[in-house]
Amino acid sequence: KNTQLEDWDRENFFHPSTHLAEFARGNLAQRVITTASGCHIEDSAGNRLLDGFAGLYCVNVGYGRPEIADAIAAQARELAYYHAYVGHGTEASITLSKMILDRAPEGMSKVYFGLGGSDANETNVKLVWYYNNIRGLPEKKKIISRWRGYHGSGLMTGSLTGLEAFQKKFDLPLDRVLHTDAPYYFRRKDLDQSEADFVAQCVASLEELIAREGADTIAAFIGEPALGTGGLVPPPAGYWPAIQEVLDRHDILLIADEVVTGFGRLGSMFGSDHYGMRPDLITIAKGLTSAYAPLSGSIVGDKMWKVLEQGTDENGPIGHGWTYSAHPIGAAAGVANLKLIDELDLVSTAGKVGAYLKGALNDALGDHANVGDIRGEGLLCAVELVEDRDSRSFFDPKKGVGAAVNAALLSRGVISRAMPQGDILGFAPPFCLSESEADEIAGKLAEAVREVLG
Ligand code: PLP
């Protein structure tokens, strides 16, 4: 067997989010992905796998869409690149900005384009600081995030991310970052607590944090409408309206990180609309192009826009830009992707297939003694494993139960994601998932759970 690529890979390639030492020791499976179509990927060893996580929950329209590939090729031939500084644009980037705002929640004004979710959130924080400086509030700069929130891997965004691995040994978090409770009802401390009381507790601890630090030092609150990487957890009922009320009262901006939820994953175009958030900034990436090309955006609300405009009257051009802001190829992919989502009605499809998948997971595993929670909204679903259901005790993380089930599922040809904190199997497939593919995921997961846990 020719192992040239595998050898080069081991010798040269620094893989992100990878156990480097285990990789070097040859203990991690190397997989060279060669092609993909619909919900399936194929590798160089001839395996065909059902991708239950749409890459990194980003290939929302599914793999191999000729409409997007053709749009990218046509753009590359016509105009591969020009920058967007000092008022330049392209047909693709200008059209896409309009398409995004046509779909965005009410009260949004403009789109700033970036490359990925991390840089879009870096942009958001800089815009918030710029905004408060222009308003003459230089002390109002801290950003509140939640434990288990995921907002990227940059210096600021890695600080906002409330997961240990993204901070430990990196000297993060930076100053000006505060963390508050995750709205993770299943993991509440007191099992007898009602959902309403749990929400009240999240709100009270946010209020305490604001009182302790001083509202005049806090600029913004950032959150994913439904927690993603931190566990795939839809918020308890009433959470966002209650948080929004606190933020409004203290003049704290809301950044909705919709990198995962934007453009349909929850069965609504935006999670902000789904849960009654009124954000000042919305982060978009992944589903904007279904990952056919890198592109992200910060959607800026009216209130901030009016101030940002004034700022440039005082200070000249805004000193923030990337070479690849609004890259024409990413923008062309975005236009074709959003058109396809409309034509195939994929947003409502995601809601329907998501409900079917959750039902299938419940049928297959609902009464297993080690399945503590089956949750989801649209095509963002999770199965959380527990050692004991009645006492809701968790496995010792060192046992790696979630990773073992994930591996057992993979050996049956289905990809899930073992989420980083807890024994949580995540499913966020492309929106074109068929009911029989959903049944396959559920059936094979049940087999995998029984193989590992009996
Ligand atoms: N925000 C959220 C909610 C995400 O899930 C991610 C990535 O998974 C990011 C931001 C960072 O995006 P990127 O990896 O494109 O930088």
Automatic annotation (TrEMBL):
Transferase recorded as keyword: yes
Cofactor(s), names only, from the UniProt record: pyridoxal 5'-phosphate
Top-level taxon in the UniProt lineage: Bacteria
Any GO molecular function: pyridoxal phosphate binding
InterPro entries in the cross-refs: Aminotrans_3, Aminotrans_3_PPA_site, PyrdxlP-dep_Trfase, PyrdxlP-dep_Trfase_major, PyrdxlP-dep_Trfase_small
SUPFAM superfamilies in alphabetical order: PLP-dependent transferases
Keywords: Aminotransferase, Pyridoxal phosphate, Transferase
Transferase is among the record's keywords: yes
Family: Belongs to the class-III pyridoxal-phosphate-dependent aminotransferase family.
PANTHER family linked: AMINOTRANSFERASE (PTHR43094), AMINOTRANSFERASE CLASS-III (PTHR43094:SF1)
NCBIfam families referenced in this protein's UniProt entry, alphabetically: PRK07482.1
Protein name: Aspartate aminotransferase family protein
Lineage of producing organism: Bacteria, Pseudomonadati, Pseudomonadota, Alphaproteobacteria, Rhodobacterales
